Amino acid sequence: MKPQVIAAVLLLFSHAIAADPVEINPPYPALGLIKTVTLEVKNAVTGGCWTNVKHVEANMRLKLSQSGIAVEDEVTKYREPTQAAINVLANGSKVFGNYCVANVEVAIVRNDWAVHDPVYIATVVRLYDKGGVVAGQAPINDPIASMVDRFITKFAEDVLKYRRAPVVKEALRRLEPKSP
Fold first, then answer.
1. What residues pair up with 90 in beta bridges, in sequence order?
2. How far apart are CA 3 and CA 125, in angstroms?
3. What's the pTM value of the predicted model, to 2 decimals?
4. SS3 for 143?
5. Kind and range of the H or E run holding 180
6. Where are the beta strands (DSSP E) in 3-98?
7. What pLDDT, in 10s, does the model give residues 32-51?
């Protein structure tokens, strides 16, 4: 389908729309290990379609902190099982007049390292992904913020839910630093 046809169909809506996010990776107990995250928000939306990036990031920080998930400012190269990164990527543009369309993806990733001396093997593991499409009259700040907020809320709920699992509690106990 041509972009112009898609834009014309989307213009039929008088207000912003947001598709339900699609869950790519289902949550699983390893999420309960996460205690600390870093945030990376990439705005690849052009044409003035997303203008409140800093506000969305501040809301993410607040929601995570309120859920007991610490947010670090510095991205660390090596990740512990209790650390992860939250990557938000939005791609989009104006498609017709003042109408914007954007794809929004939020992913929880962790770098895992295996040491087979003298070789180090690095992999990026995507623990949790959600994505969706939002559209509306420029700017589409509210639909993007709402989608990211729903994802972060669900992520925090899943982390807290899995922290209560006996196997995760035991793993967290073992990961605690030993006192001298």
1. 43, 104
2. 33
3. 0.78
4. helix
5. none
6. 17-18, 22-25, 36-45, 70-72, 83-96
7. 888 999 999 999 999 999 99
